[in-house]
């Protein structure tokens, strides 16, 4: 064999090895623990969803799926960290509806939600509830509306930061009731709930994953659920539509993402693992206790998450622009 032919064979072999390497890596994936970044504080509703799903995915993938809380800037800090992470499948993002509001809320957003990530799938859509400190004066949702029209300017409304689900719900509540309240931002849903329970602030609208246990324990006063139908775990709680707040209709969807450029074979493995987690009986029962349910298999896909994110960005843009609420 000539030197030229030997060189050509060696070059072809090297090219084949390079082409084979990503496929081999995807086939072996995962070989180390996976980190799921939750861009909100520990103990909050999104953190609860993440830890339930991560536990089952750990068993399925044969590696630990660890939850890391990176709060701040309405979820954009943690999301930005994942957007800039190595696209090897070992750093993921579990985010909620805030992914779709960030492009309008933040004038200087460092990433494009539709371009910076490889969607894996939807997880769940969580209803929200309007709750208050347990000694708040209004006895029910209808008297709450009357109260807000008279004393809304003196009422404090807690939320988990600009862009959080509780912030978005508060915007809709004020719009639907035709009032302006004193908004009190917190560094996450958990500390906001702590101050509601402690009586430091008046109102909060947050996900059932963060309010159901407190409602059942009598630690907070509950007024309504923000979805068209009642929640099975809180059957006595009326819907916002029932009490005359037709414009207040919001559920908080959650999705799982990898950084853009992640090998499609790895994304497919993660999609399959996510789908297994969502049919796990423990996950289903815990979700039910918290007033939500896993999405269907057809929704726990990259295509479904992409479609949801795209449509929700367009849905929220005019609402946020009309409210005139922005962050730097």
Automatic annotation (TrEMBL):
Keywords: Receptor, Signal
Gene3D superfamilies, per the entry: Bordetella uptake gene, domain 1, Periplasmic binding protein-like II
Alphabetized Pfam families for the sequence: TctC
N-terminal signal peptide: 1-26
Claim: Signal is one of the keywords in the record: yes
InterPro entries documented for this protein: BUG, Bug_dom1
Chain coiled-coil ranges: none
Family: Belongs to the UPF0065 (bug) family.
Name recorded for this polypeptide: Tripartite-type tricarboxylate transporter receptor subunit TctC
């Amino acid at each position: 064999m000539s030197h030229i032919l030997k060189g050509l064979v060696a070059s072809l072999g090297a090219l084949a090895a390079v082409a084979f390497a990503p496929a081999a890596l995807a086939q072996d994936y995962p070989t180390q623990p996976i980190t799921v970044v939750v861009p909100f504080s520990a103990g909050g509703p999104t953190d609860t969803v993440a830890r339930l799903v991560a536990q089952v995915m750990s068993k399925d993938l044969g590696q630990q799926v660890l939850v890391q809380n990176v709060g701040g800037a309405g979820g954009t800090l943690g999301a930005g960290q994942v957007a800039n992470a190595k696209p090897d499948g070992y750093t993921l993002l579990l985010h909620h509806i805030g992914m779709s509001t960030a492009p309008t809320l933040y004038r200087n957003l460092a990433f494009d939600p539709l371009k910076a990530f490889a969607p894996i799938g939807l997880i769940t859509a969580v209803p929200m509830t309007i709750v208050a400190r347990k000694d708040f004066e209004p006895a029910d949702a209808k008297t709450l509306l009357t109260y807000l029209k008279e004393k809304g300017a003196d009422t404090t409304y807690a939320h988990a930061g600009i862009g959080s689900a509780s912030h978005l719900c508060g915007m809709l509540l004020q719009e639907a009731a035709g009032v302006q309240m004193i908004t009190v931002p917190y560094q996450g849903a958990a500390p906001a709930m702590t101050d509601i329970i402690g009586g430091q602030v008046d109102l909060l609208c947050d996900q059932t994953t963060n309010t159901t246990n407190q409602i059942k324990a009598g630690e907070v006063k509950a007024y309504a659920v923000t979805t068209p139908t009642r929640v099975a775990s809180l059957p006595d709680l009326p819907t916002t539509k029932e009490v005359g707040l037709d414009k207040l209709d919001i559920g908080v969807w959650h999705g799982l993402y990898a950084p853009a450029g992640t090998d499609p074979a790895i994304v497919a493995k993660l999609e399959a693992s996510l789908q297994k987690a969502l049919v796990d009986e423990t996950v289903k029962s815990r979700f039910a206790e918290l007033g939500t349910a896993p999405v269907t298999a057809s929704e726990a896909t990259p295509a479904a998450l992409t479609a949801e994110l795209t449509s929700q960005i367009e849905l929220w843009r005019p609402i946020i622009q009309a409210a005139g609420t922005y962050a730097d």
